[in-house]
Amino acid sequence: MSTQNEWPLWEVFVRSKAGLDHKHCGSLHAADAKLAIQMARDVYTRRQEGVSLWVVRSDQIVASDPVDKAMYFDPMEDKVYRHPTFYELPKSVDHM
Amino acid sequence: MTASIQLQHKPEVQYLLRIGDTALIHAQRLGEWCGHAPVLEEDIALANVALDLIGQSRALLTHAGVLEGAGHDEDQLAFLRDERDYFNATIAELPRGDFAFTLLRNLFLATWSRLLWERLQDSGDAELAAIAGKAVKEARYHQQHAADWVVRLADGTPESRRRTEAALATLWRYTPELFESDAVDAAAHAAGLGPQRTELREPWLAEIGAVFDEAGLAVPADSAFRSTGTQGVHSEHMGYILAEMQHLQRAYPGGVW
After folding, report:
1. Do A38 and B45 touch (CB under 8 A)?
2. What residue in A sits closest to B145 (Cα-Cα)?
3. Is ipTM over 0.85?
4. Residue whose C-alpha is closest to residue B234's, from B82, B109, B127, B51
5. CA-nearest residue of chain A to B148?
6. How far is A83 from chain B (nearest CA, A)?
7. Which of A56, B68, B121, B150 is an S-S bond match for B132, by CB 3.0 to 4.6 Å?
8. Which of B100, B92, B110 has the alpha carbon at shortest distance from B49?
9. If DSSP codes are grouped into helix, strand and coil, which group holds residue A96?
10. What is the pTM of this model?
11. Å between A42 CA and nearest CA of chain B
12. pLDDT, tens digit (0-9, with 9 covering 90-100), for B98-147
């Protein structure tokens, strides 16, 4: 029996105590959403890694195609002016 | 070879050991799944439950040792008692069975222990109340995890349904022991240590009934059979568990990591 073929794959996102956002940390197989959350708790937060969990069906994620990598991302290489590094900050602004 | 310790029989010690030994022996059974569960995720989940139970057992055995007043620590109590001085409910020592049997037993014991821990948070014994405050959160998760699985197994495939019903037919007659108070319960209750076991019966039946409704399982008829592990009189399976559990401490006295 191969449960790998019967149970859908879920992506797991964990928010750590200090973190503001959920970060992708892995995936697992589970029969349904409720058990996916429980299994994510047992597999990915057993060493106090998090205080909140998201799971999402892997087949529901729409990803960019690696073939489009050059077209999508390379044109940004020579556009350093898009980084806000050419401004003089007033002295009264300590941190930004 | 290390000789057995002689346990001082006091009601409050036996009261704590009933809870602590049930957790300890149940954890030993759950540990047998490590590397054998049907899927990796559940393998880790069952091991997590077992480790929670061992943690609860350690705290209870340590405190029982203090109340006993004979200088016994958690390791001596866990590994150097004779079979008759263990007071776990018999249901915890039954062989692990299949996955349906394991999850149904988890549901029965986790529901029982969650109800018990909730009440022990108000114990007049501050140490026991503190242990309960931590353990009740663990038991809540154990109960939910087991209940969700029992519903899915009973309402799953014909095979999982058949196995769940077979597990229920075997396990149900070991449940009355969890709710029969005796002199130990009465003394513990009078001393403000914790509730008598009979108090847990109605809420336990209500919660199990709710899960069974969802799972489409019928509560079996009551049986005249009564198990007696909490009196120290165990099933034929107990000796084998202790032989495995105790071997290292008996062969290498005081051995530590």
Report:
1. yes
2. A38
3. no
4. B82
5. A35
6. 43
7. B121
8. B110
9. coil
10. 0.89
11. 5
12. 999 999 999 999 999 999 999 999 999 999 999 999 999 999 999 999 99
Q: For residue A83, what is the DSSP state?
A: S
CA geometry: angle B205, B209, B210, nearest 5 deg: 125
| pLDDT, average across residues B227-242 | 98
- Give the span between the Cα atoms of B101 and B150, in whole angstroms: 9
Put simply, whether B126 touches A (Cβ < 8 Å) is no
Higher-scoring residue by pLDDT: B256, B14 = B14
**Overall average pLDDT of the B214-228 stretch:** 96
| Minimum-distance CB partner of A39 among B38, B41, B152 | B41
Three-state DSSP at A79 gives coil
Which residues are CB-neighbours of A38 under 8 A, at least 6 positions away? B45, B144, B145, B148
Residue B5 is given by DSSP the state P
Q: Is A89 on the interface with B (CB under 8 A)?
A: no
Contact B44 A43 (CB under 8 A): yes
Question: CB–CB of B152 and A35 under 8 A?
Answer: yes
Say what the pLDDT of residue A92 is.
Answer: 84
pLDDT at B68: 97
Cβ pair B148:A31 closer than 8 A: no
User: How many C-beta neighbours within 10 Å does residue B245 have?
Assistant: 16
Is the CB of residue A3 less than 8 Å away from at least one CB of chain B? Answer: yes
Tell me which chain A residues have a C-beta less than 8 angstroms from the C-beta of B145. 38
> In this structure, which amino acid lies at residue B80?
L
What does the mean pLDDT of chain B come to? 96
Q: Which residues of B164-199 are buried (b: 16+ CB within 10 A; e: fewer)?
A: bbebbeebbbbbebbbbbeebbebbbeeebbbbbeb
Q: CA nearest B168: which of B221, B226, B112, B224?
A: B221
